[in-house]
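Troubleshooting entry. Yesterday's outputs looked truncated, so today I'm pasting the complete records for two proteins to confirm everything comes through intact. If either block looks cut off, that's the bug. Protein one:
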Amino acid sequence: MRHMLDYYLTQMRIAIIEQFQYRVANYFYMFGMIAEPVVYLVVWSIVAESQGGAVGGYTAGEFAAYYIVWTLVRNMNLALTPYAWEHMIQRGHLSADLLRPVHPFHAQLAYFSGWKVVVIVMWLPIALILSLIFKPTLQPALWEIAAFGVALWGGFLVRFVMLWLLGMITFWTTRVGGFFELYFTVELLFSGRLVPLSLMPEWAQRAADFMPFQWAFGFPIELLLGKFTPQQALSGLGMQVFWVLLGLLCSALVWRTALRRFSAVGA
């Protein structure tokens, strides 16, 4: 365990140093992701004002807070996509990774975890600028801030593990873009990324309870906005743990079978 901890800390340190070297590129990437939430923010703020000040339990100021926090959670949710798996297999990178003494899962998770530290630091000035423009209503209690910090990393782990599991489909075929797009469409609808889930139809909210998406996205945001009691927050953190453990178990089982199907390719 000590050696694995050293490995994770070293990989995270390398990722932090590397990503700070590319801070301008990172900022351009993060700014490029602002357009989506700003559109949502403006639209729903107008709707809230036209409905007497609130819609679905959200005021215009709370919509502003939701989508500003959205930008952080969205960047934290970036993980190894199935398309990256296609690239690694087709270019032969995975073949090299399999020869190393550390499981590729740990190598990727450690690197992405270090990158997220950079994301959080670089997000702070972006959040300040957006807050000055849109005047969010955000007054979390200390316990909500602490729980949000845990949920933020928990959401990252949920999505990382789920995408890792999904990406292993590429062991059977290297062309599964259509399946991936279907998965991402379902995720978009049931995660809280388009709108807070409280604005979705009742059936959609109930369906989302049986999926991992909201625990990776909508839950951390609503937690910071004060939408949950301490008991509900604890239950939500428990759901994150459940989906991470379930994803790890399924990944371990699929990995054994997938390696038998793996055919090395590359230039």
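Protein two, checking that the full record survives here as well:
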Amino acid sequence: MSANASSSSSVSCHLTCWLLVIGLNQAAAWAAEPPDTMQERMKACATCHGKEGRATNSGYFPRIAGKPAGYLYNQLINFREGRRQNATMTYLLDHMSDQYLMEIAKHFASLDLPYPPAQTTKAPSALLARGEQLVRHGDASRSLPACASCHGAAMTGVAPAMPGLLGLPHDYLLAQLGAWSAGLRRAAAPDCMGEITRRLSPQDVVAVATWLSSQSVKQGLPAVSLPAKPTMECGSGFR
């Protein structure tokens, strides 16, 4: 065989091997590419909200799995429009359409997952008693309705858009009640939570957060409806 023929054969062999390697790498890339589903897309949310949005009771970020779709949708809109303050959430949602935000909301609302054990233990009995009083019965002397009158007797929320308050971290509850009271968190008018939190004393806020975070959750699905009409009108809670 001539030198030229040998050289040509070698080049052809190397080219064939190179193309084979490229083909195998491309095939591997295609095989490794995850399916384009909401479940895969929403894995990014686990960075803050925990696996599948279920969070844990040791952190600051709230559980979003199993919350009513209407509530989750309203909060995504609120973050995007600036009624809730979180730079990361606003940045992520800034260019998302209403339709896609509803898809996200429905995805997390469809997840029925176990809750962690109650976070708060061994709280003072007087503090727990005051918190339970406010949650279940309110305080008529200060025109404070019971939390249960809107969030449901089981405090697991009410469809389509009223959230459950159990299974949330103690510090998160304190922060959100404080944000509403200070006007840093808002909802569609009439903003009943803003009005209610401004009637609560700092001690009452601690009592409510302590009692809520001390309750275990066996079944966290929202109620279908309330047994009676709420005593206050809320702009976004029942849309």
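Both blocks look complete. Sanity check on protein two: Residues 40-213 form a domain with the Cytochrome Bc1 Complex; Chain D, domain 2 fold (CATH 1.10.760.10).
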